[in-house]
Amino acid sequence: MSKRKLILISCLSGVLLSLAWLDLLFAPLMLVAFVPMLWVERYISLNNQDKRFSPFAGFAFSYLPFLIWNATTIFWVAFSTSAALVLPFFQAALMAVAFQLFHWTKRVFGVEKKINYVFFIIFFLAFEFMELHWDFNFPWLNLGNSFAKYPALVQWYEFTGVAGGSFWILICNVFALFLLNGILEKSFSRKRIYSLGLIICLPVIISLTLYFTYQEETSQASDVVVVQPNLDPYSEQYNLSPQDVCERIERLTLQKADKETDYVVCPESCIQEYAWEEYIEEIGSVEYLRNLSNAFPRLEFVAGISTRNKVEESQRTIATREHKRYGFLYENYNTAIKIDRDTVNPHSQLRHKSVLTPAVEKMPLQKYLGFMENFILDLGGTVGSLGTDKGYKVFTSENKPKVAAAICYESVDGQYVANLVKSGAEILFVITNDGWWENTPGHRQHAAFASLRAIENRRYIARSANTGISSFVSPKGEVLQKTKYWEEDVIKETLYAQKKITFYTKHGDYVYRTSSFLAVLSILLGFVYGVLRKKKNLTIN
Hints:
The chain folds into two domains: 3-213 and 510-540; 221-306 and 335-350 and 386-505, Nitrilase/N-carbamoyl-D-aminoacid amidohydrolase, CATH 3.60.110.10. The strands form two sheets. Strands 1, 2, 3, 4, 5, 6, 7 and 13 form an eight-stranded mixed sheet that branches. The protein is globular and about 80 Å long. Mean pLDDT is 91; it is low at 377-382. The chain has helices at residues 3-20, 35-46, 57-73, 87-109, 118-133, 157-160, 162-184, 190-213, 236-239, 242-256, 284-293, 366-369, 414-422, 441-457, 503-507, 510-540; strands at residues 221-228, 261-265, 271-276, 300-310, 321-322, 329-339, 349-352, 403-407, 427-432, 461-465, 471-473, 479-482, 489-496. By secondary structure, it is an alpha/beta fold. Helix 14 links the parallel strand 9 (427-432) and strand 10. The two termini are 33 Å apart.
C-alpha cells in the first residue's frame, strides 16, 4: 500500500477525533477514533522488512491526524493571544511523540504480540499526565474530558478521575483494532466482539448504577446566586468605571437575593480596581459590595479581582518584580476574594490562582524564554507572570459550608480541584471569564468540564462566567440551571454541603502517576532489551 493511502487512512483518526469533540456531542466516537491510526501503525510494523519506512514512522504517520484534531478543536485559543496560533502544531507534535514511543517499544519487544499494545495506553496516559504538570500545561484535550456532556456514563470518575476515562477510551480502541484485524484477515471471532462489548458496556453499566443509586447529603443548605454581568472583555471590562460595574452587579443581585441568600458569586476579574492587598479593605468596590451584603442577613460576595502584594527577598519567585519607583519587591495575582460581612474588623479572604495559563499568565521555561515575558498577555489586565499560592485555601464563614473558588483554568485540572476539596471545601465555585474566545466551542467545552469536577469530588458547583455559560451543577454532574452566552443574567439555586471524600479526591491522579512510572520503565527496558538483542545478533553472525 502506498504511503499516500496510509496517510489518508491515518487522517481518518483526526476526523473522528474532531467529530467526537465537536461541542462534545459525539464523545462515543472516541472509543474507536484511534483505530485507523493504530491500523496504519500495525501495517508499517509488519511490512517494513525492506526498511521502506523510517524508524520515526510512528511520528510521521500520526502527526497529521493529531494536527487535524487540534486545529479543529482548540483554534479558538488564538482569540485570546496570537501566540496560541502555534498551539495546535505544538500539541500535535507532543501527541505524535507519545505515539512514536509506543511504535518504538512495540517494535523492540515484538510487533506481532498483542500485549505490546499496552505501550499505546501507557505512553498516552503519561503524555496526559505531563500535560497537567509541566510548564506548557494544556490538559484541555485529555481524552477523558470528552465525556463531559455525558455525565451519566462516567459516574465512576469519582474513583479514577478523568484519567480513568482516558484509559477506557484507549483500551476500547485497542480491542476495536483487534476486531477490525480479525474481520480483514478473515479470522473473525465472536470472542473479540464479546470482549469489545464487555469493555464498552461494563463501565457504562457501573456508571448508570451509580447514577441512579447515588444519595447526596442534604443536611446543610446554602442559597447561592450566580451573577453573569456580561462585560465585554475587549472593551467594557476595562472601560467601564468600577462604580458602573458594581452598580451592574447590584442590579443583578437584587433580582434574586433575599434574606436566605448565603453567597453571590461573581466572575473572574469583575472587580475593576487593581488592589494592593494590605489596603484591600479601602478599595471602593470592596466597600460597595460589602455595604450591599450588609443589606441582607447572611449574604456574602465571592468575586474575582486583580491584586498585588509586597514580598521579601527570601520569598522571591519567578513572578517577583521590582517596583520601578520605590524599589521594593512585589507580585501580581489573579485573585478570588470573599468579601466578609461588616464586623468590628472586616477582613476579606483571598486566594490566588495557582494553575496559570501558559504564555498568558506565566512565562513557560522562564530560565530560557524569560526575554519574551513582556510580550505575553494576562487576561486579568497585567503583563508578565503572576504569583501563586503555596497551598490550597478554602473560604470559611460562621454557620455556613466551607467553599472554594477555582479560578478559570484551575477548573480544568482535576487534581488541583480535588486538593481544594481535600482541604475542606464542601461546595465549589468556579469563577471565569470565557468571553476572550468569542462564540466558539471553547467556552462551551470549559463550561462542560464543571460536570467532571462535580462527579470526581461529589460536590455541588456554582459557576459564574463573565460572558457565559454560568451554571449550577449537581454532584452527579447534572446541569441544574445555565445561562445563555453573551447575555446579562442572574440565576439562583439551593446547594447542599457534601462532606464525603471520594476515592479520587483522596488519592488523586494515581492512574496518571502509575502510567508515567511505567512509561519511564518501558523506555529503559526497551533500550536495555534492544542493546542485548543487537549484541546477541552480532554474536550469532
